[in-house]
Structures are given as structure tokens and as C-alpha cells.
Amino acid sequence: MEHVGQQGDFRFFFRQFEDIWRVLKPGGCFFATSPHWSSPWAWGDPGHTRVFGPEIIAFLDRTEYAKQVGKTPMSDYRFCYAADFEPVHIQIDQPSTTFIYILRAHKPVRA
Q1: I need a labelling partner for 66 at 20 to 30 A (CA). Which of 19, 47, 59, 60 fits?
Q2: Are 84 and 65 in contact, with CB atoms under 8 Å apart?
Q3: What is the C-alpha separation between 86 and 62, in angstroms, rounded?
Q4: In sequence order, what are the residues at sequence separation of 6 or more whose Cβ sits closer than 8 angstroms to the Cβ of residue 35?
Q5: In the 8-state DSSP scheme, what is residue 54?
């Protein structure tokens, strides 16, 4: 995930996760690992173009998004994001600082 897209390209980011959501069956899970943003490898690898951490999951989970948008400094991207994931597992493995996450496709999308 850290090898595709560019940090700050929110349109690509949300399109990518919408496409992952689209191909999963209802309740299907997406398993991923990425260097956590605090890892020296997050930006130390010349092929990495963006970083990940648990904070980003709030943008993919409609229920959590609704709780935080307007109450925290997070930006409101709901105008361009049509998918919905429910986090199943979120972990930062130490000492490797690997961000491990499992997301379940919530279909239909929660309001």
C-alpha cells in the first residue's frame, strides 16, 4: 500500500479503497501491512510514496468518521468516498513498527 499513490492525493487514496471494497463480498476482509509512519522505513525506502497508521482507518470507517468529522481537525472527504470498512484488527508491531490491519467490507454502507 505504501508503494502506490502519493501522500496527499486523497482522490487516489479513496478510489483505491473503494475499489478494494467493491471486489470484496459483504463481510469480506482486506488484510494489509505497511510500515507505520513512525518507522524509519516508512520514508527510508525510496519506493515508498505514502505512509499509514491507525489514524487513517477513521477515514475508511463511516461510523467512526461521523463521530469525528467536525469535532477533530480531520478533513471531510465524505463528498468523494462511497465505501465503508469496519476495522477488525489494528496493531503496531514492535520493534519493527509495522502497521498491521484487517478491514471488513461493510455492505451496505452505513449512514
Answers
A1: 19
A2: no
A3: 8
A4: 2, 41, 42, 45, 48, 51, 52, 97, 98, 99
A5: G
